[in-house]
Write a structure and sequence with these properties.
With about 220 residues, this protein is of the alpha/beta class. Helix content is about 50%, strand content about 15%. The radius of gyration is 19 Å and the shape is globular. Bound molecules: cobalt (II) ion (CO). Cobalt (II) ion binds near residues 42 and 103.
C-alpha cells in the first residue's frame, strides 16, 4: 500500500469519525465559514496552525509562507489578509513565527538555496538593520533571537499594511498578535502584546525590541 493511499484512507476515517460526533458538521461548514482568527505562519511542517491552537475546520483562516513574512508587495499574503479582515471580519490576526526556522537560519548563515534567497531578502534586511544588537548575542542563540526579531518586524509590517490601517480607521475591532512557537516543546509565547486601534504601534514595536534585546544580551 502506498503512502498516498494511506492518506486517502486516513481522510475517510477522519471524515467518518467527525460525522459520527456531529452529523451535520460538514453540511453546516459547506454553507459558510465564519472564523474569528486569521493565522499567518511559516510553511514548516512542524507548525500546523489548526492543531497547535486546538481549532477545528472553519475556525481559523490560514496563510503560510517560508519564514512568515509580511510584505505589502506580496499579493498572495495581502489578498488573504484583505479577505480575512474585510470579508470574513476576523477579530484576531495572529502572526506566528517559530524557533529553529529554516528560512531565518538560511538568512543568518547566508546559505544559498536558489529561489528562496530572493524570498528571504526581507529577513536579510532585518539582519542588517539590527546588526549591532545581534553582534552582542551569544552565537548559539543568534538564530533564536532572529526568529523572535522576525516576529516583531513582521507583526510591525502587518500593523502598517493598508488593510489593517483602514480597518482600524473605520473602527473595526480587529486585534493583531505576534507569537512564537517552540517546536521543541509545542508551546506558544507572546512576543508582541495584543495591538488594536487604540494602541500606538510604534511604542509597542520599540518595547518588544527592547525586551527581546534584554532577554538575549542581558543589556
Ligand atoms: Co520556518
Amino acid at each position: 500500500m502506498s503512502l498516498v493511499h494511506d492518506l486517502l484512507q486516513n481522510n475517510r476515517q477522519w471524515a467518518a469519525a467527525l460525522k459520527l460526533e456531529a452529523p451535520d458538521f460538514f453540511l453546516k461548514l459547506s454553507k459558510q465559514q465564519k472564523p474569528l482568527f486569521f493565522w499567518i505562519g511559516c510553511c514548516d511542517s512542524r507548525v500546523p496552525a489548526n492543531q497547535i491552537i486546538g481549532l477545528m475546520p472553519g475556525e481559523v483562516f490560514v496563510h503560510r509562507n517560508i519564514a512568515n513574512i509580511v510584505n505589502s508587495a506580496d499579493i498572495n499574503c495581502m489578498s488573504a489578509l484583505q479577505y480575512a479582515v474585510d470579508v470574513l471580519q476576523v477579530r484576531h490576526v495572529i502572526l506566528c513565527g517559530h524557533f529553529g526556522c529554516g528560512g531565518v537560519q538560511a538568512a543568518v548563515h547566508g546559505e544559498g538555496h536558489g529561489i528562496i534567497d530572493y524570498w528571504i531578502w526581507d529577513i536579510k534586511a532585518i539582519l542588517t538593520r539590527h546588526e549591532a544588537m545581534l553582534a552582542q548575542a551569544p552565537a548559539e542563540r543568534l538564530v533564536d533571537l532572529m526568529c523572535e526579531i522576525n516576529v516583531i518586524e513582521q507583526t510591525y509590517e502587518l500593523c502598517r499594511t493598508k488593510v489593517i490601517r483602514e480597518a482600524w480607521q473605520r473602527g473595526q475591532p480587529v486585534r493583531v498578535h505576534g507569537w512564537i512557537y517552540g517546536i521543541h516543546d509545542g508551546l506558544l509565547q507572546e512576543v508582541i502584546p495584543e495591538v488594536d486601534r487604540t494602541v500606538d504601534v510604534e511604542t509597542v514595536y520599540q518595547a518588544a525590541l527592547t525586551a527581546v534585546t534584554q532577554k538575549y544580551t542581558g543589556g
